[in-house]
Amino acid sequence: MGRAPCCDKANVKKGPWSPEEDAKLKAYIENYGTGGNWIALPQKIGLKRCGKSCRLRWLNYLRPNIKHGGFTEEEDNIICSLYISIGSRWSIIAAQLPGRTDNDIKNYWNTRLKKKLLGRRRQCNDLNHSSVSDQDNNCSLQNLSSSALERLQLHMQLQSIQNPISLWPKLMNPKTIETLNSLNQNDQSMINLPPVLEQDCQMENVNCFSSETNVVGSNQTGSDFSTFDDLMNNNDSSLVQIGNQMMAEFDFYMDLGMKDGNLGWWGNEFDVNSSSTSSWDSANMVRKSEEIIHQDYDLGYSLL
DNA sequence: AATTAAAACAACCGCCCATGA
DNA sequence: ATCATGGGCGGTTGTTTTAAT
Questions:
Q1: Domain limits of chain A?
Q2: What is the pLDDT of residue A3?
Q3: What's the pLDDT band for A37 if we cut at 50, 70, 90?
Q4: Distance of CA A21 to the CA centre of its chain
Q5: Fold type of domain A10-62
Q6: A268 Cβ nearer than 7 Å to chain C strand
Q7: Which segment of A52-66, A114-128, A130-144, A228-242 scores lowest on mean pLDDT?
Q8: Alpha helices, DSSP H only, in chain A?
Q9: Which of residues 72-91 of A touch strand C (CB under 7 A)?
Q10: Within 10 A of A244 (CB to CB), how many other CB atoms are there?
């Protein structure tokens, strides 16, 4: 038996809001506030809408100082770097961008930013097909099973815990760093990362992989990490060499099992997995990741 | 000008969590 | 301690707009 619905679905209007409905809702909330109960609100003002629908309408469109569209490059960078750091926690990301709503940012990411970044993928693939002759190296990543890749992700997570900012050093701007640190302090469900220092993020030529991660196989060369500007503007400095294959860094991580652009390995998945315990067991994680690598060998994956 | 496809936007759904009884 | 409830959130779907043919 499921929970009782929040409203009478049969007598509730759905779909786009009319100007009259908007006006009613706006006028009431501006005069009396929400009264702390969204569910009861529509009845009070004679709207045939679900309370949740009213809340969404107010938060996303009617409340003052809402901005729509026209995302700046700086906002793009903040969204991208936070997404990579904490995953699809749109409300947290939105909190860093005054006037933006989580829904707006989510839509913007799904329809534009993601494609903007993935656009690099196609270009790189084209580049590979025209220049790579060594088929074995060319397919080194694709040959890995998804489970192996997932395991590898865990290993990378471990590495990233040990050196949390090494993966995306130049993506961090001061605001992002501030956000991550505050999340770290306030949200016990987040991974306990050491404080991120701004100077750390200015390091140049940081190699994101240790020798262990070279288990991927081919000559993974540590690259000079690029900003999202590079990725978005197709600067070659954002390419990572995987054997004879050139990939955008972003795509490289995407290919490490991040299906459909889900970067959960860094934020969400890990969060979920660790949320059952109040503190993260790093020793256990080390052991597990070592087991993972050994299992991969046992299973005969071509990791070398 | 008409049609189709793709992109962008708006809204809904259902789950989870915090809170109060 | 348990349960019911509302709020918040992320994922997804539906609708509208724009671009391409």
A1: 10-62, 76-298
A2: 56
A3: confident
A4: 35
A5: Arc Repressor Mutant, subunit A (1.10.10)
A6: yes
A7: A130-144
A8: 19-32, 41-45, 51-57, 73-86, 90-95, 102-108, 114-131, 135-138, 146-162, 174-186, 228-232, 249-255, 268-274, 282-298
A9: 88-91
A10: 17
